[in-house]
UniProtKB/TrEMBL annotation:
This is Uncharacterized protein. The chain crosses the membrane at residues 20-42, 54-71, 77-106, 118-138. Keywords: Membrane, Transmembrane, Transmembrane helix.
């Protein structure tokens, strides 16, 4: 639960602050999903189940491929559809990749844990993501522009300048 919360907070916060998921987060998702993809292909399960899971784990790879194809200067319905597909790849790929990685690292998660405990973990992780997103939206109230600069990030629009002494 703690590890999953650590994974989801930063992407949720960046969407709240800057309105987008950074490329580093997309590439981290791609790396994790690719490793999980290889694991799923060699695990001992029926082929149909493995292929469906493997296909879903390839969604971040599809997003990376789309990033090569998309020309940011064009504005038409095709580009909009590609952007929607990219967003879906992240929205489906991130939770599914987390789920598969949890099952790999913690195989007893699905079998030796009550449904209530699974729901509790899910609600806590989703809660952290939602709170991180809201904190990102509210950044001007508790962070200033210097906080972003010191952390190596571009100060977002609407950030609060540091008070002069």
């Amino acid at each position: 639960m703690v590890g999953m919360s650590l994974v989801v907070w930063w992407p949720a916060f960046t969407v709240g602050v800057w309105g987008e998921i950074f490329y580093t987060q997309i590439l981290a998702l791609w790396a994790a999903s690719t490793a999980a993809f290889v694991f799923v292909l060699v695990e001992r399960r029926p082929v149909g189940v493995r292929l469906l899971r493997a296909f879903l784990l390839l969604l971040p790879t599809a997003l990376i491929i789309l990033m090569f194809v998309i020309n940011d200067e064009e504005e038409d319905i095709f580009i909009l559809l590609i952007d929607v597909a990219a967003l879906l790849a992240v929205l489906i790929g991130l939770p599914f990749t987390l789920w598969v990685l949890v099952r790999i690292v913690w195989p007893d998660f699905a079998h030796e844990m009550s449904a209530g405990t699974k729901w509790l973990i899910t609600v806590v992780v989703l809660g952290v993501a939602v709170v991180a997103f809201v904190l990102g939206l509210l950044h001007p109230y508790f962070l200033n522009c210097e906080d972003f600069t010191i952390a190596g990030n571009l100060p977002p629009d609407g950030c609060t300048p540091m008070p002069e002494e």
